[in-house]
Amino acid sequence: MSENLSPQLLALNFCKNPLCADFGSLNAANYSLSSATNNPQIACINCHSISPIIWPTELNHEVTAQLEHNHAGLTACTSEQCVNVGLNVQLHPNRYYAFGFSGDKQRYRCKNCQKTIVDRFSVENPNLKTHVTILALLLTGFSLKEIAAKLKIQAKTLNDHIKVMATICRQKSSVFDHHWKNKGQKFLLGSDWTFLQPKSQNGVLWVCTGDLDSHYIAQQSLNLSEQKITINHRFIGSDFLASINTAPPAPKTEALKDIIESLNVAHQERTHLNNPLHNQTQLNYPAKSSLVSPIYCTAAHYLQLNQALGNKEQVMLSMSFEPMLADAAMLSFNAMRQKQSLDLLYQVEDESWTEGKTGNKPQLLRFEDSAPPWSLSEQWHLRGKADQRAICQLVESNLTQKQAHQLPKLSSITHYMDRFHAMFKSSVNEPRRKRRPEGLLPLLDIYRAWNNLCHQENPGETPAVNAGISEKPLSLDQLLQ
Ligand SMILES: [Zn+2]
Ligand SMILES: [Zn+2]
């Protein structure tokens, strides 16, 4: 069957088992394709690992959909087919002509496709005061209902304000993201994921990747699409029900070894390793949106980062123990792996692990199945139990095991997501939002911009300041103007 394996298909579906001799091989002779079912799978002949096929065109659609969301409302060309699509006038002035005014607002014309764009950001935000008040109230935990009542406005009006605020924040983020990706040659990134509404069981996943040293959140993606489900592999149907009924086993103790062991068992129980929804037995399917298959969402997430960072000398990506993240990263950053500029690892550590302090010499940690080996290091104390960190190096290019154990903690990314859940608790847990998760999208855009540009972890230090791309923290006025 290997004649059906086109280079495009192999580029996404190569063997991702780091222990296999054919790991990363793009040679069709090393694979076999089963087309017996309506869900074709690919098998590595050497290690016998079997995966559902990831389809190139469907993945492209997902990348486009995520980009469209990130570009919505920016002053940039909007023609799908144009090379300038999504490229900010502010950052790429040579791609546009100034083209008169629309009212008070500056107008531009795309040099490539001649489309005209009005720059809404060329005049002051007429609702700045209201927007700052809304954001301040949101950040102090008021619910949307309470905010509407306080400001004596309709829920619909509040919603419209929030959408405009989100557009302004996306515009600000696009400028700082541009500076972030140009800040150097070496990137130390961390990824984690969670459910967007942990109590809602609606299958919406939230994947985040950021700088581990500055805590700048570079990319966030949700497996939520406003497109209607069509017959294809990118979507999860509304009739989806997991086949597995058992809850993941609780770890025997709180030791990292037992935590990893129990996660391992939970992963093995999935229909496929890279689909965390495959042990969700109940799903409150979104009423107005479609759920994207997690691997497509996550691969599109990393493909955008690869687009931004593909030519860098060194990219180190550390992630929580989740095969969905690892598989998606491997296929998205494969060219970087081939150039030996990529390191990819799982990282799990005790909450009280001290960053910047070395532990003892890492010891090998083996588990029963054939998963790649982990190594464990400990920080000892005079009293009490030691703090532990466990690392599993999936792709090794530049990082030694010792260096891997000295990396910053992954918790900055996890805390970013936890903080959203805490700050926007009333919106996240609102019962009627269980099946309407798309209402949270504008809040997420606002939250990321606020986190990167305004939120001070230490006085004067925002993630953007720490990344060297902002001189000082932005006030809420500056964020929303
Ligand atoms: Zn293999
Ligand atoms: Zn254009």
Summed up, what is this model?
The protein is of the alpha+beta class and 481 residues long. The chain has helices at 7-13, 56-71, 128-139, 144-151, 155-181, 256-268, 294-309, 323-332, 334-338, 401-404, 411-423, 425-429, 441-453, 463-466, 476-480, and strands spanning 31-34, 41-44, 50-52, 96-102, 105-110, 116-118, 186-195, 205-211, 217-222, 224-225, 235-236, 290-292, 314-319, 342-349, 363-365, 374-379, 387-395.
Note the topology.
Layout: H1 7-13, E1 31-34, E2 41-44, E3 50-52, H2 56-71, E4 96-102, E5 105-110, E6 116-118, H3 128-139, H4 144-151, H5 155-181, E7 186-195, E8 205-211, E9 217-222, E10 224-225, E11 235-236, H6 256-268, E12 290-292, H7 294-309, E13 314-319, H8 323-332, H9 334-338, E14 342-349, E15 363-365, E16 374-379, E17 387-395, H10 401-404, H11 411-423, H12 425-429, H13 441-453, H14 463-466, H15 476-480
Parallel strand pairs: 7-13, 13-14
Antiparallel strand pairs: 1-2, 2-3, 4-5, 5-6, 7-8, 8-9, 10-12, 11-12, 14-17, 15-16, 16-17
Helix pairs in contact: 2-7, 5-13, 7-8
This protein binds zinc ion (2 copies).
Residues 15, 17, 20, 22, 44, 46-47, 49 line the site of one zinc ion (ZN).
